[in-house]
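Please check what follows.
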Amino acid sequence: MIGLTEPAGGGRDTIVAAFDGPLVPATAQDVANYRVNAVGPGNPEMITSTGAPVPVLSARYDSATQQVTLTLGSPLALNQFYRVWINGQPGAGVQDVLTTTNPDGSTTVTNQTIDGDADDTAAGDFYGLVARGNRLTFTDGDGDRARIRTSGSATVQLWRQLNGDVAELGVAGAVPGRTVLSGTVHRGRGGDGVVALNSAPDLVNLNNRLSPARFPLQAATTLAPAPVVASPRNLPYSLRIEAVPLPSAPSIQSAVSAQSGGKWLVFGGRTNGLHGFDATGVASFPPSFQNNDIFVIDPSTGQTWSEPWSATGLPESTWASLASSNQEFYQQGDRLYAVGGYSSTTDSAGNVNFRTYDTLSSISVSGLMAAVMNQGPAAGAVRQIRDPRFEVTGGDIGTIGDRTYLVFGQDFQGGYNGNTGTSNGSQVYTDEIRSFRILDTGQTLAIADYQAQRDPLNFRRRDGNIVPAVFPNGKQGLIYYGGVFTVPAGGGYRNPVVIGPDGVGRVDNYQQYFSQYTSGNVTLFDRRTKALDSILLGGISLYDYDFATGALNQDTELPFVDDVTSLVRGRNGSSREYIMPSQFPGLYGAAASYLASAGLPASSNGVIDLRSLKGPTTLGYLYGGIVSTVGDTTNPASQTTASSRVFRVTIVPNFS
């Protein structure tokens, strides 16, 4: 999408959507591929909370301009925002015409679903907010309230991203030199007092009185303070990272983990290292390295029990998703909840089929452990439901109060070959924070009160780190750090997303340095300073610190690192990273499991009360994950493996 407007003149019953290439006319003119709703009261980002629908009577495609004109069943009100949805679902939505030049100079023309969510891969729904009027009022992505006005008969044409930020501002009917464009910004809580105009092509001949400080023509960049090495002068604790011998532990990465009675439960994930980027999905994700076993590990004795899912008495239709990689999961008491995941199954004809699962599983941790240790059936320990909204892999999951938040991730169907534009795979990022209440009676399983906050610009992420948060006022929330991959550079995200007590995600202006990719993590709250410290344990990172030279090195290839850092969010919301002198003895941490010690003083969401710690305290253990022999990997099969190593993480307070 390159444009979305309510054109001036000819009535107020049309919306024009402009595309950057030719479309397949039959799909572009199918009215079922479009929806228009008035933006209702409350938060317009919640895609399940909309105002009244506006019927779409026709969709006319102009191949010369590559524009679709929607004719509506009722006039659009001036100074009112409307939300526009365009179908980008694979095989069902609007399609564009892709012309590929072959090595011999010939061309091949194929049709593919539009990249509506702008993630640089085919398929993805488009959402946008559009309005026209002479006095528009709106809130941008970080909560700043803006008012924009025009004089005379001129009108503002505004296209905004679903998070509220301005994609394009135009002015229709302006009289050169006479029409006045003015506006104000009122800084909101958590805002920066700035409303960026990412594109404003029509302002040259106007009497433009928009303050360039308040309405800059591109987003302002906030420089983050450089990380520093932690010491007793700047952090009230130090860390020790120590290897723990556990020779019977299996090598595994991207697994589900939980614990009960001092033992660890581990299943799913993979037994090899980083996936490949080969010509077929079978070569990139070899089925032979898919972990189809359940493990119970006693870290105090070193004993390990295992049982294949196929021996548990559960049907493969249930356990296939639980044997998958990159599931989203969390534990509450004895109950473990697992969502989605990506893996392959082989059908009766021998065909290998890769998919992202649409399941929510409720698992009794102690019950499944008992089944494995006794080599018995596990049917009574697992209950499962299916819903397309759970079809996510590589996302993250957490809770605020009684609500579960399924954050970001993707739906990948088919085999991965490193180039989704030409493979048989379909990769669609969710671009959403999905939330719901889980209704689990012990006999029945369901969800209620589903909502989704969508932002194709800032929420197009996967494989980051979500941490529980306690804010200075004592209220709880979540913070998502990092994630991959930015468009078009393909790097790691640096702006955290803070999900407040109200459940709304807001993009922070801090620029994160370390651990953009999924790693072990633990969070502390300091009651005295009101600081929230998120300890990130190695993994894959935009920056690496060299203790020998004191150099902070950036690498946009996102290498494996040995760094352990503490990202401290202060009372006023500002952040800074501290590099812990304790590092891993190698490139560990990516896609590893972190198992917290039992009995630590913590809030109800698991944030540790730092000031209650007395003397050296074991916070938990980092287990498994991917270990690499080099930072930048060129041959994953030979340079990376799944790890069986266990590291104890100990905190040593230095306050009195």
